[in-house]
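Fold this sequence, please.
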Amino acid sequence: MIKESAYTFKILRYDAKEPERRPRFCTYRIRVIPGLTVLAVLLRIRDEIDGTLSFRCSCRSAVCGSCAMVINGKLDLACRTQVAGFNTDTIILEPLPNFEVIRDLVVDMTPFWQMYDKIQPYLIRRSHAPEKEIPQSEGERRQIDQFVNCILCACCWGACPVLAREPGYLGPAAAAKLERFVLDSRDERPASALSLVNDEKGVWACDTVFRCIDACPKDVRPTDAIVGLRKAMVKQSFKKILGKAKDET
């Protein structure tokens, strides 16, 4: 017989349509069998106890990234977090930081998607389209593997201390995706594309404290991407300086 354990779930509740009601924690006591994830329990609470509870989910397989939230102080995906993995019977759930809350655990990700769109997250080709696929070696693929793994869950955005003080910051995920395409052997975007993020709200705003790396559930290292983009920009600047010097001589 499977043994159940009782857990207390404290969930931060808030509805932006009712701003007069301040954020508050609602408590749910529920019995959980081993193997259940936080998301599975949330679905059960919504279906059996409180139908007004709001949160996002889709794939339930740590692929879509939509169930990102703060779980006992850690930014993670609810679908991959085992309830039994905690050394406490109290689970506290809060929405991602650095976002406006729409309702309960659902946040407004508009700024995140705006920055993602800004970096043109797709292959840019200037050559004529080939008759077949564009070949890529294993070595070339390995260069981008890390950043391809980003599932756009926005855990890095929630963890970033820069966004807490500068809402216009590019953000770690967008930088990682830009580096993914800059390094892609099939991409032909011009060098000037880096100018989109070459300012005090772009890659130069990063404090390099690595919180985005700690928060990423897919082991992507956005800080590495930011450093890589910075190096590329510095190289471009040196080339321009050297070119100008040659013209003057």
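The chain is about 35% helix and 15% strand. The CA atoms of residues 119 and 178 lie 6 Å apart.
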